[in-house]
Amino acid sequence: MVPKVAVIFFIGLILCHRPNAHHHGPWSPPYERRRCAFGNNCWPDHATWTAFNDSISGRLVRSFPSAARCHEAQYDEQLCQIVRDNWDNSFWRTNQTGAYSAILWELGNDRCFINSSVSAPCGQGLVPYYSVAAQEVSDIQAAVRFANYKDLYLVVKNTGHSHLGRSSGKNALSIWTHNLKGKQWHDSFVPVGAPRDTQGQGAVTLQAGEQWLDVYEAAAEQGVIVVGGNARTVGTSGGYVTGGGHSAWANKYGLATDNLLEVTIVTATGDHEILNTFTDPGYFYAVRGGGGSAWGVIISVTYKTHPNPSHLQLGLVQFNATGSSAVRTVQSAVMKSLVDITSAGYTGYGVFDQGFSGIFIQPNGTNETFVEAFAPFYQLSTYPNVSAVIGNFTLPSWIDYCDAFLTDPNIGTNIQDASRLLTADILLNKTDDLIDMISDFPDAPSGFNFIGKVNPTNRANTAVNSVWDFSHALLSFGIDWADDEPAHVKTERKQRLVEISRRFDAVIGPDGGTYINEANPYEPEWQRVFWGDKYETLLKIKHRVDPTNLFVCNRCVGTDIIFEP
Ligand SMILES: Cc1cc2nc3c(=O)[nH]c(=O)nc-3n(C[C@H](O)[C@H](O)[C@H](O)COP(=O)(O)OP(=O)(O)OC[C@H]3O[C@@H](n4cnc5c(N)ncnc54)[C@H](O)[C@@H]3O)c2cc1C
Ligand SMILES: *[C@@H]1O[C@H](CO)[C@@H](O)[C@H](O)[C@H]1NC(C)=O
Ligand SMILES: *[C@@H]1O[C@H](CO)[C@@H](O)[C@H](O)[C@H]1NC(C)=O
Ligand SMILES: *[C@@H]1O[C@H](CO)[C@@H](O)[C@H](O)[C@H]1NC(C)=O
Ligand SMILES: *[C@@H]1O[C@H](CO)[C@@H](O)[C@H](O)[C@H]1NC(C)=O
Ligand SMILES: *[C@@H]1O[C@H](CO)[C@@H](O)[C@H](O)[C@H]1NC(C)=O
Ligand SMILES: *[C@@H]1O[C@H](CO)[C@@H](O)[C@H](O)[C@H]1NC(C)=O
Ligand SMILES: *[C@@H]1O[C@H](CO)[C@@H](O)[C@H](O)[C@H]1NC(C)=O
Ligand SMILES: *[C@@H]1O[C@H](CO)[C@@H](O)[C@H](O)[C@H]1NC(C)=O
Ligand SMILES: *[C@@H]1O[C@H](CO)[C@@H](O)[C@H](O)[C@H]1NC(C)=O
């Protein structure tokens, strides 16, 4: 519904400046890897790559930006036409090895477009040089061991949806998990290593490449729901769940990661391990909210399932305001009303446009809860210079909601955002400061990527920022630019995001935090803002499970890869 994000640009590639170091045994950090990329002297030679390709059944592919087929070296008119037809199609983009949802994270400051001439340049941008198009776990184990041994710059790509460029890697080796499909439904799942008397529960095991709409369709056939996002092509088993995962179910069932019972993961040593609260509580904690690909390559995740709701109740609101005082009135009333509306069980999404437009959802909601929760909105609709529509309706099931409302917005744009989770105190007591902020950044449209009071009951053994326990909404400011803007304009736009983050700090203070999956890619004090006081614990776990720091991504725990504006 709202400005979705992401993008970038230059990575200071680490030069081959130190001799190969030990790859085994405990290291006192910081351990400095060379992270060899294509073009560096330490990049393996052709024969070595060929031998590696043979060892993974020929599944190594040279990956290119999505419009490469429209330009000289790779030119093919028919294939180029497919690219033109599908440029903003999220199903097509997530099917491609080298395509990313936000063009910035694909091209950086390079150019490779569908509307330029065949002879126009097509740079490699931030697209990994080689990708392992994995079909089985052993492909991933081999890739991890090869990258570790050869000291390669390694990234993990699933859908390429990351708002922070975490699945991009200029001239890197990528492990591409998209083709690992599979769903296994369980009536009575018991995690490995659980005490004998542990009660089984309904669950589903999803392989690494599964995407939400496919799972929603299969769940509807099973007569259950799985706690997943408001999106069709977001991955079920990668960045979404390692970052937390908000959804329409959050008020009742918590974040997606709160619903995780078990994961299997290929570790930095290339071993395939089962993680849950019984086998390795610390490692499992880190995967649940610790973010990105810092912890290994997840092969499968097992989520609890839940009963179908008897129905879903929706509220749609739109307030158009004329004149700046009416705009402020709308913004203020909306912010203040979010505390009660989320406490009543509604989740939602909304944008501050000519006033405010939003959608609110409550599984099993009633007309009574609606009348009570939406009372401030009815009041707002009577204000002068405010034109309002407030609608309610009922849908029989989640899959009907998916058919009617799920879209994957902003695909093929350069949108990135800066955000904070807002507590009741901030929404009620800092309302004017937030509204001043909105009017001071007119070039950055604002809205809520998520509205909801998230059930914290099963949050204890997770690494998500504690601010989630007390927040009612995620406020985001989006920055975008035309693809053909010169580099200095892109840099200025990125610096604008940094200004927004600093302003958030000024308004909210040092206790403020955000949702790591929908955060500023250039967040200055990212450790504090992403994880608060959990960062130190996470860093210790990182040193234990990945002592040589193989798995890195932009602003991930323990990383030395930091994208600058
Ligand atoms: C259209 C759209 C809608 C969205 N809607 C929601 C929403 O409703 N709720 C919500 O919470 N978020 C939402 N998001 C944000 C989403 O959670 C993030 O973009 C998330 O990072 C996507 O994860 P991915 O695995 O699909 O993407 P990728 O970009 O492929 O991966 C993201 C990160 O996860 C890592 N990763 C991927 N797979 C693995 C793996 N198997 N093992 C280890 N690491 C892995 C990558 O290395 C990278 O660091 C939305 C994003 C988009 C673009
Ligand atoms: C890997 O091997 C397969 C099968 O032989 C081949 O088609 C593919 O082009 C090779 N990959 C690279 C990058 O050379
Ligand atoms: C994506 O790939 C799947 C599986 O190969 C295919 O069924 C689907 O049509 C593709 N989607 C697009 C838009 O290319
Ligand atoms: C909704 O009601 C159904 C039927 O009474 C029940 O099984 C389900 O648990 C409820 N779901 C939620 C999210 O409240
Ligand atoms: C209503 O809008 C008009 C025109 O923009 C403006 O002059 C007037 O001050 C506004 N009134 C209020 C109460 O905002
Ligand atoms: C709310 O009331 C309307 C009109 O009376 C009715 O059609 C609808 O089913 C009710 N919704 C719920 C969730 O009870
Ligand atoms: C608000 O404005 C938009 C665009 O101008 C219009 O489509 C919509 O109907 C208006 N809504 C209301 C409630 O006035
Ligand atoms: C919900 O909408 C229906 C019309 O679709 C209307 O009859 C009913 O009064 C509305 N209920 C509330 C609580 O607004
Ligand atoms: C708002 O601030 C007042 C005064 O500092 C405080 O008493 C109150 O608890 C705050 N509101 C919330 C919801 O925290
Ligand atoms: C080409 O498309 C890009 C968007 O992808 C746009 O920014 C640019 O202006 C277009 N150029 C031309 C010549 O149409």
UniProtKB/TrEMBL annotation:
Q: Which residues form the FAD-binding PCMH-type domain?
A: 124-308
Matching SUPFAM superfamilies: FAD-binding/transporter-associated domain-like
| Pfam families membership | BBE, FAD_binding_4
Output the PROSITE patterns linked to this UniProt entry.
Answer: FAD_PCMH
Q: Which domain of life is it from?
A: Eukaryota
Q: Does the keyword Signal apply?
A: yes
Q: Which residues form the signal peptide?
A: 1-21
The protein's matches in InterPro entries, at most eight in alphabetical order, are given as:
BBE, FAD-bd_PCMH, FAD-bd_PCMH-like_sf, FAD-bd_PCMH_sub2, FAD-linked_Oxidoreductases_BP, Oxid_FAD_bind_N
**Which keywords appear in this protein's UniProt record, sorted alphabetically?**
Oxidoreductase, Signal
GO-annotated molecular function: FAD binding; oxidoreductase activity
Entry's Gene3D superfamilies? Answer: 3.30.465.10
Similarity comment: family membership: Belongs to the oxygen-dependent FAD-linked oxidoreductase family.
Instruction: Indicate what this protein is called per its UniProt record.
Output: Putative FAD binding domain protein
